[in-house]
Every structure is written in structure tokens, then in C-alpha cells.
Amino acid sequence: AQSVTQPDIHITVSEGASLELRCNYSYGATPYLFWYVQSPGQGLQLLLKYFSGDTLVQGIKGFEAEFKRSQSSFNLRKPSVHWSDAAEYFCAVGPKAAGNKLTFGGGTRVLVKP
Amino acid sequence: DSGVTQTPKHLITATGQRVTLRCSPRSGDLSVYWYQQSLDQGLQFLIQYYNGEERAKGNILERFSAQQFPDLHSELNLSSLELGDSALYFCASSVAGVSTGELFFGEGSRLTVL
To answer: Where does residue A36 fall: left (phi above 0), alpha (psi -120 to 50 degrees), or beta otherwise?
Structure first.
């Protein structure tokens, strides 16, 4: 069965510093990979996705993620964090077969210090 | 705004009661998904409907049921409520007939069972 692990439950970062959120997945083959962000009181918004091709993908809000097949990882990065990036971030995997069911990791809550 | 509408936004009820949560997907989306988000379980996939038919089932309790109507809106029915059912229930929709894996989430319905 597929699973997603986000090892860091909380991360605190200073505004302007870089951010990296870790995501490891377990899946029979290379799945579709996603990062979603949930701001307080809001639903989930897609940041970026990886289907195939270039393993470095760019997303919205200045985020990027790198797929590393050998490590079964899909870590999310941002070079310079803004206070508005304080939110919870979810990594998710989905099958390449028909159907769009996504399996989510437990989430990483990011706190941004001024 | 994702285009997915969920009502009600907040609901407080007592144990043993029954509630119905409603979801209107994005215009043109045929697939609707229900997720439960709780502190201890994270984001759990409950069920998916595609064009009125059940397509996939996750960790949905027998006390819970869902359906998708001809106009494509969906309802999640929760009965014999228990304290542990208190959670944020998300509806998501996806592009009709395309396995892009990208889900668009509503803002959720927060259920509190007292």
C-alpha cells in the first residue's frame, strides 16, 4: 500500500531564510507527487506537482520540489520565506493508473519568525 | 477560490445525531472526493464518486454514507455520531475524465460533536 511520510511535524524558520520540507513515499512504482498548502481556516491549495520529466519542478509562490527516485523523496524548498508562508504543508502521492485518489502525509506546520 | 463549495462551514451537534454535509464541485468536474481531517488521523480519504457512481472507497465508517446526484453535487451523511467524529471534512473535485491527480479542495465543514 502506498504511504507518505513527512518526518517533520513542525518547523520554525526566520523570515528571509530558506526552507526545506521533507517528504518520503512508499509506492510500487513512481507515482504522481504533489505538495499542497493549507493556510489557517482554509482548504488545501496545490503548490506543485510532478508527473514525469524534469525532476525539479517549479510551483506557485516561489516554491520548488525535487524528485529523487533513488531516495523515494520529493522535498519542497523555498529560497527565502515570507511571513505569509506560515501554514501547513502536505505531501501527497497518487496512482498513475486511472483514478485520482491521493494519499497524504501527516503534514508539516511551518512557523515563520519575524 | 477553488470553485468547490461546501456547506455548512461549521456544525455543532450531539452524540447519536445525524448530519449531512454538502459539496458542489467545480463547474465541469465529474469526480468528487471526501476527506476527513483530524488531529490524530491527519487527512484520510473517505470516498470518491465519479459522475454519480461510487469509484473508490477509503477509510469510511459504516455509519457514514455518501452519494453524488445528477447535478453532480455530493452529500456526505454521518449518523450515530460519536465524539471521535469531530473533524474537518473536506470535499474535493477533479477534472472530468482526466487522471491528472490534481484535486481542488473546498474550505471544509468543521463538525463538532458534543
So the answer is: beta
What's the grid cell of residue B102?
Answer: 490534481
Q: Is the pLDDT assigned to residue A71 strictly greater than 60?
A: yes
CA B87 centroid distance within chain: 11
Say which amino acid occupies A107.
G
Which of B4, B99, B110 has the most A C-beta neighbours within 10 Å, making it the best mutation to test the interface with A? B99
- Residue A34 with chain B: CB contacts under 8 Å: 101-102
Using alpha carbons, list the distances in angstroms from residue B5 to A29, B2, B75, B83: 34, 8, 12, 26
- Print pLDDT tens along chain B (114 aa): 889 999 999 999 999 999 999 999 999 899 999 999 998 888 999 999 989 999 888 889 999 999 999 999 999 999 999 999 999 999 999 875 545 667 899 999 999 999
Residue A57 DSSP one-character state: E
How far apart (Å, rounded) are the C-alpha atoms in residues B40 and A61? 29
DSSP structure class, residue B24: E
Task: Give the burial string for A3-38 (b: 16+ CB within 10 Å, else e).
Answer: ebebeeeebebeeeeebebbbbbebeeebbbbbbbb
How many CB atoms are closer than 10 A to CB B110?
A: 16
CB contact under 8 A, B101 and A94: yes
